[in-house]
Design brief:
It is a single chain. The chain is of the alpha/beta class. It folds into 2 domains: 137 residues, 3-Layer(aba) Sandwich (Rossmann fold); 68 residues, Arc Repressor Mutant, subunit A. Helices cover 49% and strands 14% of the residues. It has 10 helices and 6 strands. A 6-stranded parallel beta sheet has the order 2-1-3-4-5-6, with helices on both faces. The longest helix is centred in the C-terminal third of the chain and has 15 residues. It is globular and about 50 Å long. The termini are far apart. It comes from Agromyces aureus.
Amino acid sequence: MTVRVLIADDQELVRTGLRMILDAQPDIEVVGEAADGGEAVAMARSLRPDVCLFDIRMPVADGIAATRELAGPGVADPMPVVVITTFDLDEYVYAALRAGARGFLLKNAGAVLLREAVHAAARGDALIDPNVTVRLIEAFAGTAPEPRAAPTTPLTDREQEVAAAVARGLGNVEIGRELHISLSTVKTHIASIMAKIGARNRVELAIWATDARR
């Protein structure tokens, strides 16, 4: 199935580069480009892309505001948003993830990782650039104003292992290989963990798991 993507970045050169990378993939189609956050929200609501790829810093409405409009708490039919930025520890990144973004990539992540992030978001998963995952989570976990709620039901030992692996930035396949369990079992554990802790996506799970170790 072809994944339809909307790109939003205020730099035309960046938009062109991202379009070239994504359009070169046989299973991804760029359906629109926006130069600011306001235009991005309007186009997303009109085009209903499978994934939105938003820069953090944009005029009119930044990537955080645009993400919140399309994927934030209370949105009835949230859209998958992947945030891209030049700054791996930019303070805005954490706010974007809290606003509902399903992934975070550096703009120099490369074609393979970009494709993986788009497909992960499209299937309801999330991907954070593995080069910055640990630094990102360590920098921002524990800084949210709201307290971390305890799980409605305690995590099993295996679920704790899976949660810790997610916090380290491992993908499902890598987790399965490390813990010697099947891919379907990994997915089942992750779904169970998210339900227990009230996480909306894999990013929130990773942040929760890091906070839980503090």
